[in-house]
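Annual report, structural modelling task.

Input specification for the manganese (II) ion complex:
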Amino acid sequence: MDIHEYQAKEILRDNGIPVPPGRVTKDPNDAVNIAKDYGDTVVVKAQVHSGGRGKAGGVKLAGTSDEVFAAADQILGLTISGHTVKEVLITPAEDIDSEAYLGILIDRESQSPVVMVCSEGGVDIEEVAEKSPESIKKLIVDPRQGLLHHQAYGLAGALYNDPSLVKQATVIIKQLYQAFVTSGASMIEINPLISTPTGEVKAIDAKMSVDNSELFKYPSIEAYRDVASEPWAETMAREAGLSYVKLDGNVGCCVNGAGLAMATMDLVKYYGGEPANFLDIGGSSNPQKVVTALQIITSDPNVEVILFNIFGGITRCDDVAKGIIEALGQLEIEAPIIIRLTGTNEEEGLKILSAEGMSAFTSMDEVVEKAVSETSN
Ligand code: GDP
Ligand code: MN
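The model returned the following structure:
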């Protein structure tokens, strides 16, 4: 789950990191009032789950009330990488001497947090990463020991020469690591980390993602969830207790069990198809879950065929068959539904299907091959 900049900044502040104050609003008039508390110049910033806001016109400096109003008015309603801006953050403008990058994420290969720093931070960090990857310094942290002082000091030394800045950055890097491990984050980023003409180091932007599977441990972060900015299918799946991951293909998959779902996706690829999603309806077999699963799958306009791969254990084939028939009554499903149904109550399930003129495969290979053959590519 992604959270907004202003929310991530609250977490940084809680961990002692210097972050300028700020307040969010949905109203340009209110933005003008907030700005009055923050001195001569403020920054008006789009709050969306996307980076690159500056380049998309979502970050604007404003020096007068009229400018604040105009900036907020322009930014609210703007669409940035598919996300509509509903709120802006008003924060005092900082004088900037230098912009650095500081981030921590989980490195899958070493199965450890990796801290990354780059003295050339700011809006062009992607370009820096591409053209001169060596300018980004990375440190893999042993999670059992945590980030040690000398390691943080070494990273800070890659950012600044001035000893006072190095000292401040050392503390901030340690605080960011603390924020990372105590919030279930899978990614946390300060870009830019600035130094000011008066010699202070501060975070003026923050980005953070929290692992969905960790959220139950952190109710205060779960409360940051912005349902309105979440894809409809994800909200549906979460509320129905289905594991769903949208992918880019056209074969909609509905499977019971995560392992079988992975194997099904592999087989779809093997037969030359592309899965449209990972969807695990889980062990229980409530027909309503199947209806919800079909609603989710068919909400994806790329889906050309729907593949059911059910290996009944705790899941009962008759319940799945009932769910499919119920869904066909409730929803307008144009894509063909190709079904494999074996295991617990298989015969009852097949009877329910054949009463409606439908049939099912027993072989996984055959059903996947058939489903892929129904697609246009
Ligand atoms: P992003 O584009 O979504 O990453 O948004 P940022 O918050 O990082 O802002 C983009 C850029 O706007 C920064 O890299 C800065 O160059 C500039 N910027 C943001 N806040 C301030 C500020 O307070 N003062 C000044 N002078 N520039 C700012
Ligand atoms: Mn940024």
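The longest helix spans residues 163-181.
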